[in-house]
């Protein structure tokens, strides 16, 4: 089985520097320019199904892939980003002001923290893991998962055992593409492609 994990392109929430998960921000102009680049980058793969978070920033990417391949997309709430609760859609600086040294725990995914008014990090990991386990129990094939930063980190943790420290080595920027090959109990990361900086390079040509 092959999984192609895609983080949505730059969103207005990214551009504002806000802490957000369920806030349904659209993509910026730069984010929209990343979409055809993403579609082109995965053209060489024979895709069986396209799954996506229903949040618009991920859904738009999935719809573009589905249109290109004439494949209906499947939306699944389990691929939504974490809900940050009372910290949702706050500027990062404001969250730091409120929580101080606990900021990294609040915005992390592996510290067993309950976010007031939002999700417990363990519940977030459980729903993502349940989706992946269900997918792995099904038919072999190549599957696209269009989602979010936290969702991709959760999948890499679940399938490859990468913890908080190990995941720091990966720059999973908006528009990142990660391809995994799964063969029995072995998981291999074949590619990590960034499209975030490609937009700037193209605009300079």
TrEMBL record:
Query: Species name for this entry?
Result: Petrocella atlantisensis
InterPro entries in UniProt: His_Pase_superF_clade-1 (IPR013078), His_PPase_superfam (IPR029033), PG/BPGM_mutase_AS (IPR001345), Phosphoglycerate_Mutase (IPR051695)
Active-site feature positions: 8, 81
What domain of life does the native source organism fall in?
Bacteria
Sorted UniProt keywords: Hydrolase
Matching PANTHER family, A to Z?
Answer: FRUCTOSE-2,6-BISPHOSPHATASE TIGAR
Q: Which GO terms describe its biological process?
A: negative regulation of glycolytic process; regulation of pentose-phosphate shunt
A GO CC annotation recorded here is:
cytosol
Name under which the protein is recorded:
Histidine phosphatase family protein
What Gene Ontology molecular-function terms does this entry list? fructose-2,6-bisphosphate 2-phosphatase activity
Q: Any transmembrane segments, and where?
A: none
Q: Where does substrate bind?
A: 7-14, 57
Query: Which CDD domains would you find in this protein's record?
Result: HP_PGM_like (cd07067)
